[in-house]
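# step 3/5: fold
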Amino acid sequence: MAGRTPLAGARVVLGVTGSIAAYKAVALASALTQEGAVVDVVLTREATELVRPLTFQAITHRPAHTDMFHLLAETEIGHVTLGHVADVVVVAPATAHTLARLALGLGDDLLTTTVLATRAPLVLAPAMETNMLLHPTTQGHLQTLRERGAVIVEPGYGYLASGRVGPGRLAEPEAILDAIRLVLARRGDLAGWRVVVTAGGTQEPIDPVRVIANRSSGKMGYALATAARDRGAQVTLISAPTALRVPGGVQLVRVQTAAEMCDAVLAAIAEADALVMAAAVADYQVATPHLTKIKKDARELVLTLVPTPDILAAVAARRPARLLTVGFAAESENLLANAREKLQRKRLDLIVANDVTQEGSGFGTDTNQVTLLDRWGGEEALPLLPKLEVAHRIWDRVLALRQRQADA
């Protein structure tokens, strides 16, 4: 999975402390390693009572560290070297005791001295019993660490080792990964950008139960939002209903109909640098939806359909000068001709054309094969690729268009 992810090649120090949730750090270390990170695990003495260093060594293919006075090499002092080479330091799980030591600036073991020695961003994922978490002292330490710039991955709510149910569970590895990606993305090539991405298939009501919908899964739009986030952009994701997990760190705006999506897009583009309309927006809506459920009988059901709002036309009428607009053309015939016509008619900067009848390129797939056409006549046909890689190729082209716009 290494490659475009901001974790590829990143040096991550993963601190593991003496919480019963320490075993979950193994899954986190594995996920970090699979995304291409170089992971140096530092365990506190208490953590070694719960999970063995050898477990992490087997996962990361690197030594796991426990001793503050152990030299990494003949002349390398462990906490200094680990702190200096780190791109990010993550403590997961972080106990109340560790949070207190970090807030007070104590350096009494390898983990706390590494944190003191580093200037890398700090990500903390607390895990503890509810009363410990909510104690004013713990909350005060968390606030102190936030004010110093630490990123806190809030603990979850659920069943705890004490047998109680409440807040204090270690956040899931994917949520911690999202926080790490966001921190590392600050150095990405879209840092400072505000982007708006639409996703999913809109639904137009027939009655309170039935809708007119389409086959869109939302996967392409969600991949575009994820890729932009991983490259440092501030992302607003305007999503019609989907079954997909929302990427951490993006602002989600939920909509159902084309009219709702139009309103949301027009509100979001005022401060945006780029708009990517990956959603499959219904072309028609029921003129007058029934207020009560239509009962099935032997007669035909005749619906009067009227056009939905043209979102890109509305955007073109009021777009800020700096806004780059990207559309999609999902076609079943005459792919390039139809895409070029839409590019001009909608006044787009870039259009992404794909033939939905091709294997691996239709709705609901994890891959896509597209051709990128821009308003200056540029054309690039991409091979069949995972949708996340297609998303990165689109952002590559958006950056190139911004440079061309600046040079014009």
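# step 4/5: annotate
Residues 387-407 form the longest helix (21 residues).
# step 5/5: archive (pending)
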